[in-house]
UniProtKB/TrEMBL annotation:
Keywords linked to the UniProt accession: Coiled coil
Protein name: SMC family ATPase
Keyword Transmembrane helix: no
All copies of domain RecF/RecN/SMC N-terminal, residue ranges: 3-674
Lineage summary: Archaea, Methanobacteriati, Thermoplasmatota, Thermoplasmata, Candidatus Thermoprofundales
Disordered: annotated span: 395-417
Organism annotation: Marine Group III euryarchaeote
Pfam families registered for this protein in UniProt: SMC_N
Stretches of the chain forming a coiled coil according to its record: 516-543
Length: 698
């Protein structure tokens, strides 16, 4: 892998950055917090996304900036150019990976998966454990536990493919073994005897039985034919008899209908006769009523009485009016009398000295005269009253006599009203009778018609009887024919059933033959497959052995090769102080010889252990770069010099420069300013308050 260019927007302290990577050894220098690690981390983020960064996903976006965080990386791998872009927006992350113009993957997750599985063929942890050394993680590789470290090395160097192939071969062998077992079990019957010869015998037996059944079917078919013929004859005979019977039933119906009609006509005739007889009686009654009503004088008498009653009523009204007048006159004279008497009394009480109440002059000697006049008037008024009362008495007597005349007339009226009501009832009845009698000619006409109809019904009945008698129908012969037909039909369905049953049996026998045949074929196929599977099993066994041998051959070479590389590099880094390491082929753990004895890393100083780890990491990268097929020409080292003294730092730089020639691209990040002068390419990063990280190529 060769990095070509990097464009960053808003990644941590880097607001805007665009660089082209040089070949060979590149140093990135700058003070603490300048943005060195951020620049490298942006590369890892573009490749692997969130898991590859040291913080939460959102924390990579520059604080206080709302524009998207964006990294665009161009690199070469295996002779082809790739372009990778990852963009973090507030709501989502997008990513795109392309080879030339061809889009290889799209989407944050998809791009990471593509890089892991198909492009670099390592996950981000292996990436950080081998070619990309993160700040403070120099010893990550030696500190890994045995099994993950073995897996990481084997995956990095492609040995895991051989191992996987071996495992697949083993699995195939296992599957084939199971299959063979299954196939072999198909050749054995439940009782443990071989299945094939038994099936052959059974099939022959079944075929024989089927042939016998085919033969047995012939007489059954002949029987069905005979029964079908007989049934046809019986049906024909039956149809003739039945046609005759049908005619007879029709004639019977006609006779019954004629009888019914005759009965009905007789009943109607009787009814009509009765109605007519009745009207003769009514005629008589009407004649009697006519003479009775003509003789009645009740209405005339009642009219005369009403006149008399009117006269009496008028007299009574006049008497009442006279009484009214007399009562009024009596009352008026009474009032006048009282007034005069009061007047007289007043004058008596006032005496002669007083004033006249009417003319207001002193009464004096006129008083006595006045009083005499008033007494005369009172006398006259009393006389008048007596006369009026006598007149009223006379009037009362007259009224009483008139009232009793009225009462006598009332009694007479009651009697006359009864007579008149009886008369009216007779008239009403007479009207009804006359109305009924008006229909008499019509009734007579109807009677004549009904008589004719009855006669016609009688003739029809006689004709129907005659027709029935003419038909020669024998119910017993009819019943016999029906029975005969049923017997033949039953025989036919019995023959059909027998043949059907037989055909079912034959079909089942045929199925049995087919099933047995199929079973035999299956067994014979299994026999053939067993041969093939056995040959295949042998081939896979061989393949598994070969792969196993191949893998142990490679791994047996890797550990010594890696140890030789590391030893050389270590001798150079430590100026010959340490010259030999030992790498365990089973888990790639590292031991360093001090004198004749090999020690694990915890026995050495921190700086020494860092130097060993660096030597091992660089050797792995070297080995990767040398491996045919994978071009892993990149080594990234973030702050690996911190624990080394000046001499060792110089040695490391010398070693890296040499390494860059074979590996291709080596990027060293450090805050140690002094190394600037020893490097062919240097980028200096400075943190500017306004613009964020600023890059200067020296
Ligand atoms: N999201 C962010 N937005 C802005 N600045 C950030 C963000 N995340 C981290 N920083 C700051 O960016 C600066 C650069 O950090 P970085 O780790 O790249 O520095 P460095 O150059 O590697 O320093 P050192 O030499 O100490 O390792 C730091 O000051 C850090 O606090
Ligand atoms: Mg840093």
């Amino acid at each position: 892998m060769r990095l070509r260019s990097l464009a960053i927007r808003n990644y941590r302290s880097i607001r805007r950055l665009q660089v082209e990577f040089p070949e060979g050894l590149l140093g990135i220098v700058g003070h603490n917090g300048a943005g060195k690690s951020s620049l490298l981390e942006a590369v890892a983020w573009a490749l692997y996304g969130t898991p590859a960064v040291r913080t939460r996903a959102e924390a990579v976006a520059t604080i206080g900036v709302s524009d998207p965080c964006q990294v665009r990386l161009e690199f070469d791998l295996g002779g082809e150019a790739f372009r990778l872009e990852r963009v973090l927006k507030p709501s989502s992350t997008t990513a795109e990976l392309a080879r030339g113009d061809e889009l290889l993957a799209e989407g944050a997750r998809e791009v990471s998966d593509y890089v892991t599985e198909r492009l670099l063929r390592m996950d981000y942890q292996t990436f950080y454990a081998s070619i990309f050394t993160r700040q403070g993680e120099l010893d990550k590789f030696v500190n890994m536990s045995s099994e993950p470290r073995r897996q990481a090395v084997e995956r990095l160097l492609g040995i895991s493919d051989v191992r996987d192939a071996g495992q697949r071969a083993r699995q195939q062998k296992r599957d084939l073994g199971n299959r063979l077992e299954g196939l072999r079990s198909q050749l054995i019957a439940r009782d443990g005897e071989p299945l094939q010869p038994r099936l052959v015998t059974e099939l022959a037996e079944l075929r024989e039985r089927s042939a016998a059944l085919t033969k047995a079917g012939k007489p059954l078919e002949a029987a069905l034919e005979t029964a079908t013929l007989q049934d046809a004859q019986a049906v024909k005979a039956w149809e003739q008899v039945e046609a005759n019977a049908e005619k007879y039933r029709t004639a019977e119906k006609r006779r019954d209908a004629a009888q019914g009609a005759l009965k009905l006509a007789g009943e109607r005739l009787q009814n009509a006769q009765k109605t007519l007889d009745n009207s003769y009686k009514k005629e008589k009654e009407a004649a009697e009523l006519r003479s009775a009503t003509a003789a009645s004088d009740a209405p005339g008498k009642l009219a005369a009485l009403r006149e008399k009653q009117a006269t009496v009523e008028k007299e009574l009204q006049e008497l009442a009016a006279g009484k009214g007048k007399l009562d009024a006159a009596l009352a008026a004279s009474g009032r006048e009398l009282a007034s005069e008497q009061k007047h007289l009394q007043e004058i008596r009480e006032l005496g002669a000295e007083s004033e006249c109440p009417t003319c207001e002059r002193p009464l004096g000697e006129h008083g006595a005269a006045l009083m005499g006049r008033i007494a005369d008037e009172i006398e006259a008024l009393e006389q008048q009253q007596r006369e009026t009362s006598a007149a009223l008495e006379t009037l009362a007597q007259t009224s009483k006599a008139t009232d009793s005349r009225g009462a006598a007339l009332g009694k007479q009226e009651e009697k006359l009203r009864g007579a008149e009501a009886a008369h009216a009832a007779q008239l009403a009845r007479l009207r009804d009778l006359e109305q009924a009698l008006a229909r008499k000619p019509e009734l007579e006409q109807q009677l004549a018609e009904l008589q004719a109809r009855e006669q016609a019904a009688r003739t029809e009945q006689e004709a129907a009887h005659a027709a029935l008698a003419k038909l020669e129908f024998d119910p017993q012969a009819h019943a016999r024919a029906r029975q005969q037909r049923e017997v033949v039909a039953a025989a036919l369905s019995e023959a059909k059933l027998a043949l059907e049953r037989h055909r079912g049996e034959l079909a089942r026998a045929g199925d049995g033959v087919k099933a047995k045949q199929a079973e035999l074929e299956r067994v014979e196929r299994a026999q053939a497959q067993i041969g093939e599977a056995e040959a295949e099993l042998e081939r896979f066994g061989l393949l598994e052995q070969l792969l196993k041998g191949f893998r142990s051959h490679i791994t047996s070479r890797i550990a010594p090769t890696l140890a030789a590389h590391t030893s050389r590099r270590l001798a150079q880094l430590t100026d010959g102080r340490y010259t030999q390491v030992e790498i365990d082929g089973s888990d790639y753990s590292l031991k360093v010889f001090d004198g004749v004895e090999a020690h694990s890393l915890d026995r050495f100083s921190g700086g020494e252990a860092d130097a060993f780890s660096l030597a091992l990491r660089l050797s792995i990268s070297q080995l990767l770069a040398e491996r045919a097929g994978t071009e892993m020409g990149l080594v990234v080292l973030d702050e690996v010099l911190g624990s080394q003294d000046e001499l060792r730092q110089r040695r490391v730089l010398e070693g890296l420069e040499r390494m860059a020639q074979s590996v291709g691209q080596v990027i060293l990040v450090t805050h140690i300013e002094s190394i600037k002068d020893h490097l062919p390419h240097v980028w200096e990063l400075v943190l500017d308050d306004e613009r964020g990280t600023v890059l200067r190529e020296l």
